[in-house]
Amino acid sequence: xxxxxxxxxxxxxxxxxxxxxxxxxxxxxxxxxxxxxxxxxxxxxxxxxxxxxxxxxxxxxxxxxxxxxxxxxxxxxxxxxxxxxxxxxxxxxxxxxxxxxxxxxxxxxxxxxxxxxxxxxxxxxxxxxxxxxxxxxxxxxxxxxxxxxxxxxxxxxxxxxxxxxxxxxxxxxxxxxxxxxxxxxxxxxxxxxxxxxxxxxxxxxxxxxxxxxxxxxxxxxxxxxxxxxxxxxxxxxxxxxxxxxxxxxxxxxxxxxxxxxxxxxxxxxxxxxxxxxxxxxxxxxxxxxxxxxxxxxxxxxxxxxxxxxxxxxxxxxxxxxxxxxxxxxxxxxxxxxxxxxxxxxxxxxxxxxxxxxxxxxxxxxxxxxxxxxxxxxxxxxxxxxxxxxxxxxxxxxxxxxxxxxxxxxxxxxxxxxxxxxxxxxxxxxxxxxxxxxxxxxxxxxxxxxxxxxxxxxxxxxxxxxxxxxxxxxxxxxxxxxxxxxxxxxxxxxxxxxxxxxxxx
Amino acid sequence: xxxxxxxxxxxxxxxxxxxxxxxxxxxxxxxxxxxxxxxxxxxxxxxxxxxxxxxxxxxxxxxxxxxxxxxxxxxxxxxxxxxxxxxxxxxxxxxxxxxxxxxxxxxxxxxxxxxxxxxxxxxxxxxxxxxxxxxxxxxxxxxxxxxxxxxxxx
Lengths: 504, 154
Hints:
The complex is a heterodimer of chains A (504) and B (154). With 504 residues, chain A is mainly alpha-helical. Chain A has helices at 2-15, 18-36, 42-49, 58-83, 92-103, 107-140, 145-162, 167-181, 207-225, 247-268, 274-289, 302-317, 319-325, 331-342, 351-354, 356-387, 392-411, 414-432, 438-460, 467-470, 472-503, and strands at residues 184-185, 192-193. Chain A has one domain. Chain A contains 21 helices and two strands. A two-stranded antiparallel sheet of chain A has the order 1-2. In chain A, a hairpin with a 6-residue loop joins strand 1 and strand 2. The longest helix of chain A has 34 residues, at 107-140. The mean pLDDT of chain A is 84. Chain B has six helices and no strands. Chain B has helices at residues 3-24, 38-60, 77-94, 96-99, 101-115, 121-142. Chains A and B meet through helix 8, helix 9, helix 17, helix 18 and helix 19 of A and helix 1, helix 2, helix 3, helix 5 and helix 6 of B.
C-alpha cells in the first residue's frame, strides 16, 4: 500500500508538468463542452479528438482523452438541469429532479451540488483506483488465453443484458461487431478476409470511423429528422450569485453523495454502461430510503446529488478493468483502449510495471482534472449555458464538418470518411429500429483479441473445448455468463406463468 | 416488436448468411489449427440462429400483438431532410480531394445550413465563409494537418 502512495506521488510529479497540466485543462474544457452540447456524446467526442493527440506523448494523450471522458460526465448534467435535455445518456436521471429545481428558480444550487458531488465522488473513486488496481493487476497475471476469452464473452453477455430492450437484439449487434472486426488480415495466418480484393480493407475497419458514425453522425441525423421548430429550446441561465447552495442543501446532499459514490464505484467495475446503471440505481435507492419520497420528481436535491456522484465515480472505476485487464467494459473505455493501442501502449496486467509513468500520471491527472472541473464548472456555468443558445441549425452542420475533418485526419483517407457515413446511416436506422450501438462498437474493438484468445486456447488444448471449463478462473466466468443468460429466461417464464394464473 | 424491428431481423439474417457463405470460401482448418474462415463462419451461423429465433418469435405472435405500424407509402418531409443531409455529406466526401478542403467545407456548410432552414442567403454564405476560413486556419495552418488542397491549391 505504501508503494502505491509513493507511486501516486511520482504520478503527481508527472501530471503537474506544464504540458500535462495544459492537456488536462484542455481535456476538461473540451469534455465539458461535449457534455454540454446535445448531439455529441463522450464516445464520438473522444473518437473525434484522437487524431489531435497523434503528436503527443502517450501519457499526455491519455491524460487529455481521459479528461474529455470525465469532463463530459460533468458537462452532461448542465443540459439536463437547464434544458431538460441530457447531454449524454448518464445524465438522463438528472433531468428528473434537476430540471424541476431549475423550474423553481433553483438551477444554481442544482448545478453546484452536481459539481461538488462529482468532485467528492472523483476523489474517493481515485483512492479506490489507487489501492485496487495494483493487486488486481497482480491477480490478472494468472490469466491466459482461455481466461481472457471467457472474460470477454462474459463482458459481451452482461453488456447485452443491460443495454437496450432485448437481449437477443443486443447479442446480434455484438456478433455483427465481431464479424466486422474480422475484416482485413487474419491475425494468425495473415490471410485476407472479406476484403473483396480492395487494399483499403486490408487494415480492417477503422474503429474511430465506426464510433463517430454510430454515435456522432447518427445523433445528428436523428436531430435533423425532428421538425425544425423542435430544434430550438428555451435555456434557463442562472446568475453567478445564485449558484451557491444553502447549508441545508449541503446537509441533505452529503449522504446521497457518499452512497452514490459507493454505488458508482462498484458498478463501474462490472461490464455494462456503468454510469447509466449507476445513476439509475442511485436514484432508485435514494427515493426508496428517503423520508419524503413524494418530493422526488418535483425537485429533490437528493435526486441530483446521488446520481451525479454515482455517475462520476463509475466513470472513474471503469478505468480499472481497462488498465488492469486491458479489457474495456463500456464503449467510452473501448475508445480509450483504441487510443492506447494507437499510441503503442498495450493495457493489461503489465501496464503498471511497464508504463508506470502513464498509469500513475493518468491517475494523478484525474484528480487534478476533477479539481479543474470543480473550479471550471461553477463560475463558468452561465457561459456554458449561453453556448446552448447557439441554434441547432448552426450547430449540427458544424458538428458534421468537424466529424468529416476529424475522421480524415486519422489516416488521411477519404475511404474512412465513407465508412463513417455508412455507419452513420446504419446507426440512424438502428436507433429507429431500437437496436443498440454499444455492443457493436465494443465487439469491434475487442473482436480481434477475442478471436486470438479463442484460437490460441484451442491450439494449446489441441482442439479440446473442455479446456475452457477445466481452468478454474475461466470456468467461473463461463458459469457467470450462463447465469446471466438463463436468469432473464427463468424470470420471463415465471412472469408468463403468473400472468396465466391471474387470467385463469 | 414492430415491423421495423422485423425488417432489421431479416437484414441481420441475410448478413449472417452472406458471412457464412463467404467464410466457406476461406480455409476453415480444424479446431486444433483453425483457418482464417473458421471464426467468421461460426459467427455467421450464430447470427443466423439468433436472428432466426428473433424472426420466429415475431411470426409466432402472428401479427396479433404487433403494433399496427405500416411502412409509409410516401416519404415524410423530415425523412427527406435526412436524405438531403446524407446526400450532401456523400457528395462532400466524393469531392473532398478534387475540390480541396477549404472549398468543400464552405460548400458543405452552405448546403447543410440551407437544408436546415437557413433561408437568408447573405447570412448563410457569410457564416459558411467564416466557418471555412476558421477551420482552415485551425486545422491546416495551426495544427498542420495535411488536408487536401484540391484545384484551388490552398
